[in-house]
Amino acid sequence: MTPSHEDTLRELPTGDGTLRYHEVGDGPPLLLLHGSGPGVTGWRNYRGNLPALARHFRCLVLEFPGFGVSDPTAENPMVAAPKAVLRFLDGLGLERVDVIGNSMGGFVAVGLAVAHQDLFRRIVTIGGVGRNILSPAPSEGLNQLVEFAEDPTRDNLLRWLRSMVHDPALLTDELVEERWASATDPDTLEASRRIYGRQAMAALQAAQAHSDQPVWAALHKVTAPTLLTWGRDDRVTPLEGALLPMRTMPRAELHVLPDCGHWAMIEQKAAWESAVLAFLTRPEAG
């Protein structure tokens, strides 16, 4: 049975606002962290994957503050996200979970795994972890995000959405309208500017340039088994970004999906679910 938005939505009051999430299934806990971008939510990222994942896991789809579902944050949502994960797991009494992170969610998961090595049993990422080596940075998709944050028109939203997928037929009128309604909500739009406005992007690049150890340089500290999933045709976080984590993360595996852009869990749904479930349900090494 396909889970519904209303039946699965939960609330967790915390000392820094209410966190909202979706809960589906029984079994070991599996935390799902969404990406960023106009109109994104955890539900929209993962709703199609929940029937398969919930047959094996208690799926917990966290909605990050600053994206229009959980209570808003005065911080940059990228800064608020890791703290929200820790509050969420503490509030539910969970000490160790499996985690799937899409794009920004993968970046958040890996950053937490560097700082808290016992937090995650296994990690799955969908693009978003690593560093451009051969191609320009920011990438085409990130530049489209900046354009929308600075000038939130429907045309700019469409340009960004097209950069997310290999097959534009996925961009149905319903999907576009859903994203447009959410992305142009004043609070959500303001949060997008705090992440992807030109000023914010310039500050982020300056901070990375002067950091003693950016996350990509600390990937060797991630001790949990990790499955890196990547669309071969990703134009937001190009496939070359997998080279650094694949080489430096001691227990990393890489699965590349053909004819697939940044939304691997949507565009190659069945193949992605098969690879992820095989990894997450694999017996522990003796």
Automatic annotation (TrEMBL):
User: The organism sits in which domain of life?
Assistant: Bacteria
Pfam families per record: Abhydrolase_1
An example of a GO molecular function for this protein is: hydrolase activity
Domain (AB hydrolase-1): residue spans on this chain:
28-267
Q: Which InterPro entries match?
A: AB_hydrolase_1, AB_hydrolase_fold
Q: Would the keyword Signal be found if you checked this record's keyword annotation?
A: no
Ordered alphabetically, the record's keywords are: Hydrolase
User: Where are the bilayer-spanning segments?
Assistant: none
Protein name stated in the entry: Alpha/beta hydrolase
Which lineage? Answer: Bacteria, Bacillati, Actinomycetota, Actinomycetes, Kitasatosporales
